[in-house]
Protein 1
Amino acid sequence: MTDAIDVLVIGAGAAGIAAARELDAAGLRYRVLEAGRRVGGRAWTEDDSLGVPFDRGCAWFHCADRNPLRVLADEHGIAYGDNPALVYHVGGRFLDDAEARALRAAVAGDTERLCAAGRAGRDVPAAELLDPAAGHAPVRDYLLTAINGVPPEEYATTEAAADDDSGQDWVARDGIGTLLERLARPLAIDAGRPVTAVDTGGARVRVDTPDGPLTARAAVLTVSTGVLAAGAIRFRPALPPAKTRALAGLPMGVAEKIALRFPGNPFPFAPDTYLVVQPGADRPAFGFHLCPGGHPLAVGYAGGPLARWLGHQSTETARAFALDSLCRAFGERLRAQCLAATRTGWLHDPLTLGSYSAARPGAGAGVRESLAEPVGGQLFFAGEATDPVDFATVHGAWQSGRRAAREAMTALAG
Ligand SMILES: Cc1cc2nc3c(=O)[nH]c(=O)nc-3n(C[C@H](O)[C@H](O)[C@H](O)COP(=O)(O)OP(=O)(O)OC[C@H]3O[C@@H](n4cnc5c(N)ncnc54)[C@H](O)[C@@H]3O)c2cc1C
């Protein structure tokens, strides 16, 4: 019976679901093997923790004006909002509109300098081109680190240049995890079936799982670079050196959330406002998505070293840290209004081992294309890390799954 399978898809995150839909639409015989008990991977909406939907992973349709998942959200009844308002609380007060505009322009100027360097072929850490003493540096570095999962010292100028961000960031009100769950419903997915080995030595690909092996004419691999680098899947023969070099060049950055539940919207801002609080020298700048999708939450978002630190704290400590920052902006009265908290743990999750890929400075401009390169006409690579433009996003993962499925179909037809 397993000989009837054309393509095995490994992983049921955005890339795996997109690949499976593509194969399904083309009438191929496929099966998706997912290690976890749920589909969606890093797209995960849940309401068990706080009683309202909370996206533990992706929440924003980045590049929403050209995002294929945003289009699918329309078809599947998933509502979304508009670009967030950005507000800043710096040194004990909220910046007025003119100050906020000046800060945004200073950050944009720095970002453009990084892009220009990358475009000119300079593959260096962003930190080399940023002034650490600039007045806007704490907010800039907070944003850069949260968005990319790595601090300026580990963020490559080539990444800044490659990232074709349209600047349209719209929040999925019902959750991107909810959307992916709906998209996955008609598909043939075996959840709770981890892949432990992939053998491309024979005429058919052989994939080992604790429930026994499966074979197929081709396989699409979508697991994170964190999982691949940890050796959770054995490859026979070993992956070629170019592939292992690409993997080494694309480690996982870290981003974690701490979500605080309130009885209603306690903030003097519309839902989906993004607030950055920069209290002073005693605390790092920290940001919050306020009332995401209209839900009564404040979602603190940490990247890089701060996320790693948070990941090692108890939920209570993480909650206290986030509340301390929020209270700097809104006053101590807020503390007693916080009903509950939950935090994410992507860094320690064995099925991701980090949040999203970030090319190491010096890894080279084509490193993501190298990771995407098929092996031996049988093994095809997808996942956010393989998208040369929209890496580290859910729509990049989606596009990569469609691309890898098409590559597999072309190879099978040849
Ligand atoms: C905190 C956080 C916030 C984010 N915010 C945004 C955002 O707002 N907007 C945005 O666009 N992107 C965001 N992202 C990034 C986005 O979520 C990811 O880029 C995207 O979901 C990755 O999809 P993927 O299919 O490549 O990988 P995954 O979602 O990781 O899918 C891979 C799947 O493989 C499974 N797997 C692992 N090992 C095995 C194995 N051995 N056998 C079988 N299956 C296995 C995993 O369980 C997983 O389901 C965020 C990510 C995080 C962590």
Protein 2
Amino acid sequence: MNRSDAAAAIKSAALRIGFDAVGIAEALPLVDPINRYKEWLGNGFHGMMSYLERNNEARADVGKLLEGARSVVVVAKNYYTPYHHEKQNVGKISRYAWGDDYHTVMNALLDTLGSELISVVPGSAIRRYTDTGAIMEKEWAVRSGIAWQGKHSNVLRRDIGSWFFLGVLITTADLEADSPMDDYCGTCTACIDACPTSAITQPMVVDATKCLSYWTIEVKPEHNIPDDISKSMDGWLFGCDVCQDVCPWNRFQTSCNDSHFMPRNNVIALSPEAVVNLQPSEFILHFRNSPLKRPKLEGLKRNARALLATVGWKK
Ligand code: SF4
Ligand code: SF4
């Protein structure tokens, strides 16, 4: 099979398996993106996420992650469900975390796609990634033509907005590559204007040390959320979706109809008062296979205490 037919067969398999978009990029070194990334690190915008300073050689060249890499297959999976935070006294949770842990779901689907790829191009080697490891997923999404990078730095599409997970297969298979997608942000600056902490310092650059998602998910529980950040929490208990909620491309999103991503009642109805009183055994029981486990119970309690201390959070 030639590289064009092989690419078409793999894309068709990806859509059949349940992904919403798929594209392919040539596995070339990332020169400009890694320079921009190093500048971001140099500005200290990664805060306490020191693991992001490591493995930059691999980040710049997927050939360091898989010897002989020729192609990068990138897939997107819509996780939008038509629910909105409206209840009183409930802490807001970032939309991606309402259902099951996406790593489990995406990895299973990527494994199936990997098997399909091997049947199309026998003997291919593969490495898969879902938001793990030293790989610039958003850059690959752009290069493979499945999305553009918005000014809020997330990637987005005209048909499913930005509410999707990314998955990547690096492979030694030589597949015909796609062209990057045009940027449809235009003159819009809604995300930059709406960010409650002014964390988007310029288009596509987020200072994580100001971002609510960083403070409520990534920062270890022993660190309290600074007052100048917590005063802008506006009800967010875990993560923050403000810059995506205001994006015009997310206005007409359609539901994913994937049971894994349907909002769990105990997640969308979580009050900060309940979190503060949560016992470890209850946390393990209620949040099994949920993204809410990432900051651990103590991190979630830290967020809840910060939220309760803010004036008028009950919105
Ligand atoms: S997630 Fe929230 S705090 Fe972070 S950049 Fe977006 S709007 Fe700003
Ligand atoms: S809100 Fe506007 S500027 Fe920001 S990502 Fe969406 S379209 Fe682009």
